[in-house]
């Protein structure tokens, strides 16, 4: 059919083709629909024009027509649409498509037909919200704002930052550090009231992460003095204890313990070690009672600078807490785990950490497993859904499987009663069931007759 249409166009038989299509018989009409679908597929504008002139309803294929990229033909199709079409979801999707392709003429046509500038896409985003998520094309932002898009209208899409539970175009531009977008939005909406996000104000976030935008917001708010800013608190802490005390005393409203702990958290995520040291020396609680997560957990999550762990241990942080060892075994350097294991962790926490080690993606976790076993952790970890060997077998961690077997793991340990797996069952569910299964069965046949070996510098026997 595609070749047939090409032949018609090449020999300029469109007129004859139109007359042929005008024959009102079921066979010709069925043939016409086949030709129509083929014309859409090969993007044959002349043939589609013939159908349009004969009154074909393009409502069901409007998106396909728009994606051809011929704005002039798309406009002609839209001009023949019934007014009810522009109240449907497909019109909203076209609106977003025209904005993304910078087809502002067609976008304006839809606005004139009643499509809302705040029309949502599949993800619940307005076009203005979505416009800031890609490149730094400010033309789209300019068009939408000048067309009346609300810079503070909340969207239900996932935010680019965990700080804002109900994001809007302006706050997302702040979190994406799009200074030009923020400046343009504020200039075009001078009376917009800057709202706070769920966990902290936009102004405070900008003061820490991107000062030029913070200055824009301060100017927009008409503040002679912004008062307390988390970024200023961090900067003063980076200069030492005297500068920190001076800044705190200069604030008419007292700097709370919550503010200080938030500054400590930001110093870790921003790798500002001097600031973190100063804050702890000033008396900030190393356990971060006002924070959603303990500072030492944040430091372990960052997996960059082990000096933070020493810092918190030195300031008497309560490190023997649930989840800390499981995160510590994911830290690149085993020295961090060794230091933490000097503290009295609950045996269950050490067993959970061993299971986490067994499923780690890198081979250098064997030294971490060896450290845990030397503290007396039960290698078969009873009571857990999967013990270390069952976990390693299911994750195709052959080196870890070897290590655990040579350390005395029970290959035939029973499966946990609620959703557990034996080691062999786990192996059969892995990405290499034959390889891991053979490894386990070979050691079962040997009745675990072990020979001395060395894996990654850890001696086993």
Summarize the structure.
This protein has helices at residues 2-10, 14-21, 26-42, 45-53, 62-66, 71-79, 89-100, 104-112, 127-131, 138-146, 169-175, 179-188, 202-209, 211-221, 230-238, 241-250, 257-269, 273-282, 295-302, 307-314, 324-328, 334-340, 347-358, 366-374, 388-394, 398-406, 423-428, 433-445; strands at 453-455, 458-460. It is mainly α and 461 residues long. Among the domains are: 227-317; 320-461, Ankyrin repeat-containing domain (Serine Threonine Protein Phosphatase 5, Tetratricopeptide repeat, Alpha Horseshoe).
Structural overview:
By secondary structure, this protein is mainly α. It has a two-stranded antiparallel sheet. Among the domains are: 227-317; 320-461, Serine Threonine Protein Phosphatase 5, Tetratricopeptide repeat (Alpha Horseshoe). The chain has 28 helices and two strands.
Task: Walk me through the topology.
Layout: H1 2-10, H2 14-21, H3 26-42, H4 45-53, H5 62-66, H6 71-79, H7 89-100, H8 104-112, H9 127-131, H10 138-146, H11 169-175, H12 179-188, H13 202-209, H14 211-221, H15 230-238, H16 241-250, H17 257-269, H18 273-282, H19 295-302, H20 307-314, H21 324-328, H22 334-340, H23 347-358, H24 366-374, H25 388-394, H26 398-406, H27 423-428, H28 433-445, E1 453-455, E2 458-460
Antiparallel strand pairs: 1-2
Helix pairs in contact: 7-8, 10-12, 12-14, 13-14, 13-15, 15-16, 15-17, 15-18, 17-18, 17-19, 18-20, 23-24, 23-25, 25-26, 26-28
């Amino acid at each position: 059919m595609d070749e047939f249409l090409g032949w018609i166009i090449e020999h300029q038989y469109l007129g004859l083709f139109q007359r042929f299509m005008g024959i009102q018989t079921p066979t010709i009409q069925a043939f016409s629909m086949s030709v129509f679908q083929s014309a859409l597929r090969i993007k044959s504008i002349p043939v589609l024009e013939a159908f349009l002139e004969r009154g074909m309803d393009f409502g069901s294929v409007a998106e396909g027509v728009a994606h051809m990229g011929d704005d002039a033909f798309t406009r002609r199709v839209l001009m023949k649409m019934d007014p009810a079409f522009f109240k449907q979801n497909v019109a909203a999707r076209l609106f977003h498509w025209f904005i993304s392709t910078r087809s502002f003429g067609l976008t304006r046509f839809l606005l004139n037909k009643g499509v809302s500038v705040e029309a949502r896409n599949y993800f619940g985003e307005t076009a203005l919200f979505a416009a800031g998520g890609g490149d730094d094309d400010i033309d789209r932002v300019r068009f939408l704002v000048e067309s009346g898009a609300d810079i503070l209208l909340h969207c239900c899409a996932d935010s680019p930052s965990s700080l804002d539970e109900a994001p809007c175009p302006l706050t997302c531009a702040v979190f994406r550090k799009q200074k030009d977008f923020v400046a343009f939005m504020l200039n075009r909406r001078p009376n917009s009231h800057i709202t706070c996000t769920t966990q902290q104000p936009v102004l405070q976030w900008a003061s820490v992460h991107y000062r030029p935008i913070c200055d824009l917001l301060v100017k927009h708010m008409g503040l002679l003095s912004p008062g307390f800013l988390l970024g200023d608190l961090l900067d003063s802490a980076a200069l030492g204890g005297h500068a920190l005390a001076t800044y705190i005393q200069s604030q008419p409203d007292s700097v709370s313990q919550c503010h200080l702990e938030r500054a400590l958290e930001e110093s870790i995520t921003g790798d500002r070690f001097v600031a973190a040291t100063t804050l702890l020396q000033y008396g900030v609680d190393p356990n971060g009672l006002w924070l959603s997560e303990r500072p030492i957990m944040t430091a372990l999550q960052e997996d960059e600078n082990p000096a933070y762990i020493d810092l918190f241990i030195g300031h008497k942080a309560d490190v023997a807490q649930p989840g800390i060892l499981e995160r510590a075994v994911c830290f690149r350097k085993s020295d961090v785990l060794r230091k933490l294991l000097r503290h009295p962790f609950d045996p269950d926490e050490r067993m959970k950490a061993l299971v986490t080690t067994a499923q780690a993606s890198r081979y250098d976790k064997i030294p971490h497993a060896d450290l845990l076993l030397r503290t007396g952790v039960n290698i078969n970890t009873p009571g857990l859904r999967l013990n270390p060997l069952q976990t390693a077998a299911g994750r195709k961690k052959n080196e870890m499987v070897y290590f655990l077997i040579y350390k005395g793991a029970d290959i035939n340990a029973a499966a946990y009663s609620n959703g557990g797996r034996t080691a062999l069952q786990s192996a059969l569910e892995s990405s290499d069931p034959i390889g891991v299964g053979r490894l386990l069965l070979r050691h079962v046949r040997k009745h675990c007759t072990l020979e001395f070996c060395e894996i990654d510098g850890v001696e086993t026997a």
